[in-house]
Amino acid sequence: MKERNILCYGDSNTWGFVPIIFDYETNYMARYSFDKRWTGILQKELGNNYRIIEEGLNGRTTNIDYPDVKGRSGTSYLDPCLYSHSPLDLVIIQLGVNDLKTIFNRTIEDIAGGMGKIIEIIQDSNFGANLKEPPKILIASPPLLLNENYLDADKKKVFTGGVQKSKRFHEFFSSLANRKKCFYLDLAKRVKVSEIDGLHLDERGHEKVGKIVASKVISIFK
């Protein structure tokens, strides 16, 4: 079997952010080691015939930029990222949660539209396995927000209204995957984020995601 190259394109839950209530004064943060992150679990489950390429970035959105932070829009870096890591057999997209932030005032339709832009960039590329066509795409609808207690530097809630919107990810992302002929996986049905911050996966969550995604990947390449 030839080696399969898989790009995991996501946000802080792909980066491996340890659940905390973020301290903006000290900028303290911690990151799970590769063997604890879901991408590392995925690599272990799939074995040496697969090469897992991590591309997680804290705060990454689908296609919208922050007013004061550069480079967080998923569309801004995607094309060079695909080129850099090509040839790619599969791109796994796990995005959408950061689009729920109050600062963006996005509807679920806006967020699904942003995911659509991500898909279009991939499907318009020729960075697939033979460098003549696009790679396959797996949309991993993220776990639901557990609460809206995450605060910004001004002690204001970051995700007001986000819990209800996150409950509609499955509806819109599954429909989008069907229209765009992508593979689809609903993580919200089987995985919960940590109660510590209501946003990030803990070690148990990472392990579950890694194993669930591995099973899906195996089914894709049967």
Question: Notable features of this structure?
Answer:
222 residues, 5 strands, globular
Mean pLDDT: 96
CATH superfamily: SGNH hydrolase
- Any idea what the shape is? globular
N-to-C CA distance: 11 Å
Map the helices and strands.
Layout: E1 4-10, H1 12-15, H2 38-46, E2 50-56, H3 74-85, E3 90-94, H4 108-123, E4 136-141, H5 162-166, H6 169-180, E5 183-186, H7 203-220
How would you describe this structure to a colleague?
With 222 residues, the chain is α/β, with parallel strands linked by helices. It is built from 7 helices and 5 strands; from the N terminus they run E-H-H-E-H-E-H-E-H-H-E-H. Helix 4 (108-123) links the parallel strand 3 (90-94) and strand 4. The protein is globular and about 50 Å long.
Short recap of the structure:
With 222 residues, the protein is α/β, with parallel strands linked by helices. It has helices spanning 12-15, 38-46, 74-85, 108-123, 162-166, 169-180, 203-220, and strands at residues 4-10, 50-56, 90-94, 136-141, 183-186.
